[in-house]
Design goal:
By secondary structure, the protein is α+β, with helices and mostly antiparallel strands. The chain is built from 15 helices and 11 strands.
Length: 381
Amino acid sequence: MRLLRSNLSREEVLPRMRDLVEVLYAEIPSGVGSKGKLRLTRQDEERLLRKGARWAVEEGYGDAEDLERTESGGAIEGADPSLISDRAFERGRAQQGTLGSGNHFLEIQYVAEIYDEAAAAAMGLFPGQMTVMIHTGSRGFGHQVCTDYIEVMERAARRYGISLPDKELACAPINSPEAQDYLAAMKAAANYAWANRQCIMHWTREALMKVLRTSPKELGLTLVYDVAHNIAKIEEHAVNGRKQRLVVHRKGATRAFPPGHPELPGFYRDLGQPVLIPGDMGRASFVLVGTEQAMEETFGSTCHGAGRVMSRHQAIKKAKGRAIWREMEDAGILVRSAGKRTLAEEMSEAYKDISNVVDVVHRAGISKKVAKLRPMGVVKG
């Protein structure tokens, strides 16, 4: 997840919203198998896998200050391209700078409500402000890495005598060669994802300046924060009163580190980590901050999103005969998608109401509400 703030208001961009959505859809490829503007050589891709968002900045896609507002500085040390299959390299070569499909999106939003004025101000957010949220990951590259290593882990589980109730729970002891290889490959996939969002941010900024005919200074499109989910991170946590190094797997979850945590950049050290929780394309998304209670109760984690109430198949069946894009436009939200099927799968009714979910984590104290963001324009895969 990546959130961008701007100097512009909702009123300033609404008259050009249709143009903005069309240009963003044209400039940032999306959908299954989509190919981006970049054509990477094997050597390019190896550098990208080691450097992550730093590679993108070095290539001219953004600024060094973007890295300061990205989890882990936009790259995890220890990625090893030699552990990546040729098939994964092949799938990743043309997909850098693309959105992908499913629940991935690029949204032009506005700040609809502020809950914590001091925290919002620290993040550069104000009422009625235009923001942009980007949700995408490591694309076919990461999917292939996962596919490759599930097979490795299934064999390892048998070798180490681990009984699995479900083969998708395939695993290996952390200090085993198989687990260490997987972690190094997963880091490469995470770095691919950080570079991907960095490139998309750069092209989003260019598209907005082009359509709105504004300068970089007037636009003021800067990064609030970028945080990963669906990832395993090695962290230090207290267990039964004793500090331990753990591998924390966040699947459908995201970090929510508290004020004072050493991994936070200096300008967020006193505030706590910005937490980005997206909703469905027709309702809202939220910005929160991490808390000490999250460190004590959930290993510094909170939810990543609302969660589905319908399967994709059920949603398609429910949407039959309806024009979801028209329903959204009637609600004041313009949407462009690579296909009608995606809009059916991702319609609001297929998800829990994100407001209710965020209220739960807020009341539970594992992250605190800062702002609500409502969509104006949506690009889906």
